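Quick illustration for those who missed Monday's session on complexes.
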Amino acid sequence: MRNSKIAGLGFYVPEKVVTNHDLTTFMNTTDEWIVERTGVRKRHYFDPDKGETNFGFAVKASEIALQRAGLTPADIDLIVYATLSPDYYFPGSGVLLQRSMNFRNIAAIDLRAQCSGFIYALSVADQFIKTGMYNHVLVVGSEIHSSGLDYSDYGRHVAVIFGDGAGAAVLSATNEPGKGILSTHLHSEGKYAEELAVIYPKSSAKNRNPIEELRPGGGFYPVMNGQYVFKHAVTRMPEAIMEALEANHYKPEDIDLLVPHQANARITQAVQQRLGLPDEKVVNNIHNYGNTTAASIPIALCEAWEAGRIKDGDLVCLCSFGSGFTWASALIRW
Ligand code: UT7
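Prediction with oxa(dethia)-CoA bound:
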């Protein structure tokens, strides 16, 4: 049976850099707190005055990924777009990407799995390629968090973590035996849905857009039970990695590169320790970008590839954990 392989990767972050020190000019926080608790030193924020958009970041990342895959928009058979911060409530950002890049009238699937969005999207794309329905699928993770964060004391533990940006991968069919995406493993546990959530605009409310919910701590802002999320993340991510390894008869030491969702540097460290992996086998870039949710894995994967950290034949493992709760892994023979 044929597999899908990653034929091209690209990422884009907006120009505006916001350091921890910059945050201290309008928030009650410190560089020391942020670095010690999260590892984040700076992040990129979109600039509304420049007309920057979520789908606009996706366009920039996708153009690079397509060019590296040696393909044009006409070659793409499907878009799978992961985001928790879409441009509109509806339609999804996938169709805005389709319009902007002049793709054919192909399907654009918008996928909502938060920090696991990219791996979920990769899995959807992989199934369409494995069944033979499509040959080339564009997978995107893109986020604008900075316009929706609560910078007051209610939300400062959440606000300091997140950053904006996008990553994209072109998946193409391959008949090379043992190469490409070996397996993907997707999970959710909805009983924790409200532990990390943005509740509004909620369709079941009497009035979907009550202005009072814009107050600090209100429903339009993300709420997070941080320590609770942390504890689940450091359990579920190693579990998902082991699931992927066992499904393919590998052990942790067989991994050449682990690309975890960049949630918090301390979460990545805990996952690394549980698996007994050395530093050079684990990608860390949260200090530069913060947590970019659905974009974090493709940005980290792309940077690692650009730095020459992924060679032909390497075993690459992706893993994620986030709101839902959702968690996932993917094992790739490059
Ligand atoms: O990507 C998807 C999933 N998200 C995650 O994986 C995030 C998981 N959780 C975490 O990474 C951590 O829980 C956080 C980094 C979000 C927060 O770290 P924490 O160690 O859980 O801190 P906390 O929220 O329990 O706050 C500890 C203290 C509190 O002060 P008191 O009550 O001890 O006096 C907070 O008010 O730190 C205070 N605090 C801050 N101080 C300065 C909270 N946020 C800040 C801040 N700056 N930004």
